[in-house]
Model the fold of this input.
Amino acid sequence: MSVLVMGLSHRSAPVEALEDVALGKDEAAKILDEVHTASHLSEAVVVATCNRLELYADVATFHGAVEEAGALLSSHTGVPLELLTPYLYVHYDERAVSHLFHVVSGLDSMVVGETQILGQVRESFRLAQTSGATGRVLTELFQSALRAGKRAHAETDIDAAGRSLVTVGVASLAPAIAPDGWAVGQLDGRSWRELVNGSRALVVGAGSMSALAASTLADAGVEVIVANRTPEHASRLASSVGGHVVAMSDVPAQLDRVDLLVSCTGATGVVIPYDLVEEAVERRAGRPLGILDLALPHDVDASVAELPGVVLADLSTLAEAQDADGGVVADHVEEVRAIVVDEVAAYATARRSARVAPTVVALRTMADDVVEAELSRMEGRLPDLDERSRAEVSATVRRVVDKLLHSPTVRVKELAAQPDGASYEAALRELFALDRRAIDAVVKPDRGHGDQA
Done:
């Protein structure tokens, strides 16, 4: 069995295409449910974020798995496969493993080094476990990748360099929403936190991205107001950042008073229409309004950027900003890349070693069967042998067999850990004429019983 990943992300597709394939938790769970009946996919994890949709799977055959994975993504996004294909990438085996480690470490994010992806992948893995879609292969892979992600953030300064989408977005809007007005036009040596300190922001939504936005703004001295369709969620978020709550019906009035609107609701349609912002602009009497739209699909009608005094930042503009700023975090990125290379190599070594384990188990099982058969024959030939002598003979035979098998089994595990180690496992099978069915019986799928990461 081998690992395959098929998907699309901000690196392969424009924001418009990512909007079309945006999936919620329920739809991701439906994909996982269908994997149970798939012919070529035996395990699966769906990673669905605002910047990517990826299906990871343990597969029996490459071409069959690619067809099934493509059909699943097309079916559940409602986008015909021929329209998805130009944006899809496929990684297989070692490349799929390396891709996941890069994703979890933040190296493949729109904002390089951001930490949110670590939690998003963890939640995606847990959803797959809950759905019974994971087994030994993906459990070991995702646990290893998550450990690598933790190590990347613990051992380097990528957290400081890898700013979140919220931080990048607010920094880009800071001159506009600063209390002294957007005539500042530039930071003038001041940090974005200094510029926005004392301003007021309305956060629409109460999910993980909204919570990140609220906490980031509150830490910078911004007064935070939260609006959400579920009042309990809004209250919980507002309390956590020392802000206060307003009803969704009060959003138009709040647009008259705030300096910044941040929206990330996860809704399927526009939440902040053009007319709503246009009316607010007329009442603001020239005061600028910064809008940060972190939703996919968009929460805010993109045409509001044409209104006088409105400065809009969304996923498209943030992607462009990142492209222009790519060299700033180069040193930290190289440190994380070194960790990823190290962790991928360690995972590959462990995986190769694990592959020979069933063969070793099958060999020792065969040896035990031979010993038992010979001891039974001895009892038939020497029925008068006393118990003490019988026990001594049995122990002696078992020790001899164990000693004969010890060196070759230990050595084959060591050799199997090397890049070309598969040939040693094959040699062991041939030398001892091991039944392939006996080996396969050792590695029957144990879907859904992995440990939580």
Q: What stands out?
A: The chain has 19 helices and ten strands. Residues 181-186, 445-453 have pLDDT under 50 and may be disordered.
